[in-house]
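ok so I'm stuck.
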Amino acid sequence: MRKFELVLLIHAHQPVGNFDDVFERAYASSYLPFVEVLSRHPSVRMGLHYSGPLLEWIERAHPEYFDRLRTLAGRGQVEVVGGGFYEPILVAIPPEDREEQITRLADYIEEHFKTRPRGAWLAERVWEPQIPSSLAPAGVRYTLVDDNHYLGAGFELDQLYGYYISEDLGHSVKVLPGLKSLRYLIPFRDVGDTIGFLRDAAGKHPGGFAAMGDDLEKFGSWPSTHDHCYRDGWLEHFFSALEQNSDWLVTSTPGDAVDSHAPLGRANLPTASYTEMMEWALPAAARDRFHGLVQEFASRPDALPFLRGGIWRSFFTKYPESNLLHKKMLHVSHKIARLARSRRRDRKFRREREEATTLLLQGQCNDPYWHGVFGGLYSPHLRTAVWRSLEHAETIADGLAHRERHYAEAAQFDFDADGHDELYLTSDRYAALIAPDDGGTVSALDFRPPNVTLINSLARKPETYHAKVRNLPAAQSGGVQSIHEQTRVKEEGLDRLLNYDRWPRNAFRLLLFGQGRTHDDYATLRLEEDGALAGGRYRVTDLSSARAALASEDSSDWAAAKTFSLRPTSAGFDIACDVSLRRTGPGIASVNIGIEVVINFLAPSAPDRYFESDGRRFPLRWAAAVPGANLRVVDEWQRAAVTIEAPAARQFWISPIETVSESEDGFERIYQGSQVMAVWPVELAAGAEWKGQLVLHAAALA
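replied:
not stuck anymore, here's the structure
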């Protein structure tokens, strides 16, 4: 009788823009010891997938690791599995980019390991029914999703010990169901529990196989897992147990498993990801209700598969910053696609177009587009790395399209697909996205020559786990657990940071508030500013290549007008916001008028990023109310500086934007930039008008 098989597909990834020391720690704690243990057990076979950014780092930093993988692959112990090179969510990028991502990783694997991959890892196991039409034409024969995908389609767990054929428009791919039970057993429970699970499955499904796809980082990089897997020997014991049970159990690579078994049938799978991801995608209030519903039906395993969370694309609704990043990516992709249709064939054009394409693909790395225990949306360095790649790609594409060294143009269209037009002003020096329907603010501001994105912050908003932050003691129990079962905090007192923004963290927001309000109110988001002026609708009254004029529509007591002017300078560019505010309501109003900008230079404790005021330097996490009409923010690492000038302003109010988020290391506070508001106290009678200006001077450092 044919032996039962265990099919493991282990996935390793580090995102674009991650710190080199993070790569190195993951390599030392997980990637290297895992293959060292695997090498000592030649009968244990599996699939290994490494994302492109990680492979490129390993090739540069530890080329000897490739020799280990070649040895394992050469003796048939390891199948190197493909996917999208920069680990994109395939359904979220254009079809031509999907093919390019898959082909690039397949080419890389073939070049370095002398075999072309048969299968593809799906980033975050995000599946939509049209996926086969992207995988099969790119040469992908199989992939793996979670059992959750199958259960949502009405399959029973006992039907998932093999694989199925999924088809779209005549394109078919073999799809292995990865079992959640194995994900939670390996490596967090006793080895005997896993062997017992497999023995039971073998008795019920003779000749079948059980598959699991999960992260290599859980074998050493997740908290407590390095000692558990290597010092305490869990992985060695697990591989030895597999060998000791070889009379009835063998391991197989996923490619060999699908080649040696007939399909169990067809499977038309719904849009899904793993269960935790689908819960993370829900808005906070809905997630709370969903979690309560799951608890209510905990004793009904027959019903639980039909309690499903959101879909991965819901992150674009939940987080406007994710949506903006995604639409920036699509905008750049369309520009590069137009270049691909160009008749130009000169060497310089082809070289720069190829560079722009690579930068675009890097900008499709999935991590900063979502947030859960994993995901990098809350990580400014990951978000910025992807934005910078897209910014650089767009700068190259615009330069090739215009040919002239200097250019400026403006367009009005729905950039972020929210049903409202934005204004997009671009030149060889800058790209500014103005949102008339969000207070006439600037939602994105790129400084092109040094390739710096100046805003790129994140609004503070309620998250489901904030309830734990308010109630959880810092001391946590020990023991090894799945990352989804742990609760850790990296510092005490995080609950004091749980303040929530009324508006997206855009620049040049007009804030009108009472003169009794203080800097502390500003820092804790208690200004109670006029909502119609701050976040209401502004109509466009004029638009030219470097100028945009807008007027407020929603306020009953005030009429505001904003004019944005952009101009190149020898060191960079200036963007000026001229504001006029007229009192249309009755009586005299004593108010403070503020114009706010947001600047994110990422590293609040680094000595090469700082504020300059009155000849003194202050760290980026600085909070203060300072007199004067000029303030400078410097980033020596990115070689850029911003001077904020507000003629006749009484003070600048400065406060860090800090979020409290959940990661694999626990709850932590993260600096998301600084909000800086120029403040003018004024008294305005009915019909009176105030005029003010705030100018942002962006300069590249020598």
